[in-house]
Write a structure and sequence with these properties.
Blueprint (H helix, E strand, L loop, with lengths): L14 H12 L2 H13 L3 H29 L3 H11 L8 H32 L8 H12 L2 H21 L1 H29 L3 H9 L10 H12 L5 H6 L8 H29 L10 H11 L4 H35 L3 H22 L6 E7 L2 E7 L7 H28 L2 H8 L4 H29 L1
Antiparallel strand pairs: 1-2
The structure holds 4-fluoro-L-phenylalanine.
Length: about 475
């Protein structure tokens, strides 16, 4: 039976390595870059509360579902779902969401690599002392100059994609463990130092209130955004966690493991938010500034504290590694699947897929400069246009890919995975995999997967539609 096999793509040495790898996947640009800027754009506390609710009631059950599907079958997501569906007497077509997930993960990688490339540029900028003594206006101008330059963006995007492909080509299991052991604790320590700086700005409480004061009237504004982000930040809905689950040892407790990853991820995001917003307010910056938020605020902090040049350099190196360990997990489902399916070399498959993602990523590079006027999904006065050059509204290429993945593909993928675990797999299979001691706890977790999480996704979709 599938339950005892070992994946041909490798297996983790212990449950701890899975925790490290899954945390490495979850903690990334989503926590340090995206969470603060989305919180800023969607008005603060209301967004944060919805995000936490979505993590607890939807994100974690889906993470649990993915891990258990992967570990049960010990194959890449597409093959895992296909074989488990057949084993449970259902149609192999139920594996289609895993195909969609692979595509979504590759689309995410395409823009993720561009943003991670910004961090590469900042490592050098910080190291060279470009930000020493900088104020908010200066940091804003430096960021503007970077995004306006397609060549510089392309260079970093290319380099980051090569770095990602390199680890994947050698095999995730071999490459990931050592770097993560050092990097995760260090990242946390540096975030705490930044938090310390934000205390000294005199605007700490302003930042705190912005993050945690709940305004009920704003809740509906950003629910879909908050749910999409909960998926993005936990890396669920695309099969990344599922493929990592397939490398997990047989006798590890899935529940506690998944909870640990979720808590670590949330802690990093909240600490990043608490560190950033006081700096935003102290510098008279706009919290709703969008994707540039972290790249404008942090140089101000590092440019004005003792040893800031060194700490800033280390910090951006850590952001880079955090992004790297996440991007690896985006490529892995598709690579693992194609290795299983074609039997060709991992290196060759990795190179092909990385090239594809690189090409799509060039759309994101250009969306910040030469192609900023290329707008997609435009609802104009003369009706809907899929594409229009120079339109007022609509979304840039980067916004479109981000929107399509976070708001639509991830929630749908997650919904399909959790329904699969809750309704297609036999109850006994799920019980066996979860191996929870308390029957009551099992029933609660099982119903979270069967009913609460799927309903959560549906309710948010409907609420969003109702708003239109
Ligand atoms: N969780 C990552 C982050 O927060 O940066 C992003 C991510 C990783 C999304 C892997 C999707 C994925 F498959």
């Amino acid at each position: 039976m599938a339950g005892n096999a070992v994946s041909i793509n490798g297996s983790w040495a212990s449950r701890w390595v899975f925790i490290l790898a899954a945390t490495g996947s979850a903690v990334g640009l989503g926590n340090i870059w995206k969470f603060p800027y989305m919180t800023g754009m969607y008005g603060g506390g209301a967004f944060v509360v919805m995000y936490l609710v979505c993590i607890a009631l939807v994100g974690l059950p889906i993470m649990l579902a993915e891990t258990l599907i992967g570990r049960r079958a010990r194959m890449s997501p597409v093959n895992a779902m296909r074989s488990l569906a057949v084993e449970a007497g259902a149609s192999p077509k139920l594996a289609w969401p895993a195909v969609m997930g692979m595509v979504a993960a590759l689309l995410i990688l395409s823009f993720y690599s561009v943003i991670a490339g910004w961090s590469l540029d900042y490592v050098l900028g910080m190291g060279a002392g470009r930000f020493t003594g900088v104020d908010a206006a200066g940091a804003g101008a430096a960021f503007g100059a970077l995004t306006a330059d397609p060549w510089r963006l392309t260079l970093w995007h290319t380099l980051f994609m090569v770095l990602t492909g390199f680890v994947i080509a050698r095999g995730v299991v071999a490459g990931l463990e050592k770097s993560l052991r050092v990097m995760m604790p260090l990242l946390f320590v540096l975030l705490l130092i930044l938090l310390g700086y934000s205390f000294t700005t005199g605007h700490f409480m302003e930042g705190f209130h912005f993050l945690f004061s709940f305004q009920p009237d704003k809740v509906l504004d950003g629910v879909l955004a908050a749910m999409g982000h909960a998926f993005f930040t936990l890396s669920v809905g695309v099969g990344s966690i599922m493929v990592y689950g397939s490398y997990m040892p047989r006798h590890a407790s899935i529940g506690a493991t998944v909870l640990t990853v979720g808590i670590l991820d949330t802690l990093v995001a909240l600490t990043a938010g608490l560190a950033l917003f006081p700096i935003v307010f102290a510098g008279g910056l706009e919290p709703g500034a969008g994707p540039g938020l972290m790249f404008v605020t942090l140089p101000v902090a590092f440019g004005n504290i003792p040893f800031g040049q060194l700490m800033g350099t280390v910090f951006f190196i850590l952001v880079l590694i955090a992004a790297w360990t996440s991007s690896i997990s985006m490529l892995e489902p598709a690579v693992a699947y194609l290795v299983e399916r074609t039997g060709r070399s991992r290196a060759l498959i990795t190179a092909g897929l990385a090239l594809l993602c690189w090409l799509v990523g060039m759309g994101t590079v250009l969306s910040f400069n030469l192609g900023a006027d290329a707008r997609f999904f435009v609802f104009g006065e003369d009706g809907f246009h899929l594409f229009q050059w120079g339109a007022e509204g609509g979304r840039t290429f980067f916004d479109s890919i981000d929107y399509l993945t976070s708001r639509i593909l991830l929630p749908l993928g997650g919904l399909a995975f959790v329904l699969f675990a809750g309704w297609v797999l036999k109850r006994e299979t799920v019980r066996e995999e979860l191996a929870l001691r308390s029957p009551l706890l099992f029933t609660a977790v099982y119903w979270l997967m069967r009913v609460v999480a799927p309903l959560g996704v549906l309710v948010v979709f409907v609420a969003e539609l109702a708003k239109q």
